[in-house]
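Recall from the previous chapter that SMILES is a line notation for molecules. Here it describes magnesium ion.
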Amino acid sequence: MVPKKVFFTNGVGKHKEKELIDDYCKSKNRLIFLDYDGTLIRFFDRPEDAKPTDDILDVLEKLASDKKNELVIISGRARKTIDEWFDIDMSFVAGHGAWTKEGRGEWEKAKNLNDSDWKSKVRPIFEKYVETTPGSLIEEKDFSLAWHFRGVDSTTSHKRARTLVKELEFVHSMNLQLLDVSEVVEVMNAGVDKSTAALHWIEKPGWDFILAIGDDWTDENTFSVLPAAAYSIKVGPLPSQARFRMESPDMVMKFLKKLIEA
Ligand SMILES: [Mg+2]
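With both inputs in hand, we obtain:
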């Protein structure tokens, strides 16, 4: 994957940004995927502190209330957190694709999700790392367990993360996947990722504008299933197959406000 050079926000990509906004204005049936952490809001040492600000909620509310938009937050967060944080009539994907919710409907579990008996094997390993790495913590979701070490002394915690990933290699033979992203090590059921969840919407007919914005490699799964004409935007410097880039969540927010005002 070759990093793209076009930044929408430093002047280099201004004409491309205008092209996108023009396309947005012309279209009548838009599909918009937004990742949450690292995309709409910066990272916090404690994941629970990354609560949406009034500004974020206002932007989402306005985008979602436009009848031409189908707005989907596509996140690794737990269903419960999403329900607590967002009281907006729009769609959500939780647990990196384990659950989807359309509008004010019920949460639907992804097909092919197997049981989560494996947690009893993985939890004690995570607990060991929490004990030896003060400040780190375990997060449990329906089909995943995650070890968060953001905000913990980084040399030590990154070293421990590498050891942990090695220790968890056995999960690959258990129909599980190991996610190693943005200061989180997460074990989750196989067969769940953002691409399957995204396809649930993409495959519906009639879209004349598709946009996806995300910051880490789980969003690459979303980007990978977008039609060629779709707009994809990577937030931050990591390699990506996205067509465009933005530097930070602040810039994403500014850009979304331009869409609302366009
Ligand atoms: Mg993210």
